[in-house]
Amino acid sequence: MSDIDLGELMARAKAFSDLTPEREVLLVNSGDLIRPRLAEVTDSFYQKLASIPKATPFLEGRMESLKATHQQWLNSLFTGPYDENYTAAMYRVGDAHVRVKLPVEFMAGGMCLIQNELARIAGDVHANDAASVVALMSAVNSVLGFTLMVMQESYQSSSLAEELEKFLAITGMSRTLFNNLAVAYRV
Amino acid sequence: MRSDLLTSILSDLNGSSADIEASSVISTDGLMMAAMLPSGLDEDRVGAMGAAMLSLGDRTAQELARGHLEQVLIKGDNGYVLMTHAGNEAVLSVLAKPSARLGLIFLDVKRASEAISKVL
Prior knowledge:
CATH class of chain A: Mainly Alpha
Order of helices and strands of chain B: HEEHEEEH
Order of helices and strands of chain A: HHHHHHHHHH
Number of domains of chain A: 1
Radius of gyration of chain B: 13 Å
Oligomer: heterodimer
CATH superfamily of chain A: Globins
Structural class of chain B: alpha+beta
Helix content of chain B: 40-55%
Shape of chain A: globular
Helix content of chain A: over 70%
Largest interface: A-B, 12 and 17 residues
CATH architecture of chain B: 2-Layer Sandwich
Low-confidence stretches of chain A: none
Number of helices of chain A: 10
CATH architecture of chain A: Orthogonal Bundle
Strand content of chain B: 25-35%
């Protein structure tokens, strides 16, 4: 992770997902309403995952600890700050997913599950106030999009690093030789 | 000083046969140590590619149970590329004409690689 410019990644991901300062404030201000309901999101999330055969190996014997980590992260979505520390933490999550060989589609799919649950809760807490529901879900979508972009960047980077290590091990080429080859052929 | 000695060995090698067009000494990490190459060839690329070929050749020889690698020979329409270890830290790479008498080339290259090994 020492090579990544977290500040640049954070700025780029926030710009793309439209996580504006106003939306960050809205997320924090919505915390009192939403955070008491987050256990529902985690339960629904893991219930859905448990029904997917491909997900089972990643859940066995780890459900409770995974749920606890998941709750902690969901809480952070409604407390902030959405700064370089948060970006670094989400970057590490992407790397962790590569190390356990989690298929890449689980990250985007997982975000969809969370979005659906939070949309339901947003509709509940702002019943009869469509404008507030829209505003809250826009902020939720932005912060989830921002988080996903960071995780995916890390996932891709870690995947490439893993493939490179395999290539170097198979060919017997040293990393230094590989780097010099890359420099010699840099466009 | 060592660079001059290496260049001298390459100069003798190139002069030993009309069939040898160019030669170079490359570190095993792909960096050029000494070269007598025609213009138009990028030294950095020749160095890195030569070391990569020998590294791959080492692994292939092991995997296919051919023993310790002696040399890598590439034959193209326009001639040969011959690469061999020159000690533990360097690779000798030679370009030869398509009509080259390989037996003599192999001998000259063997002698040159031994001389280079002593310098390094």
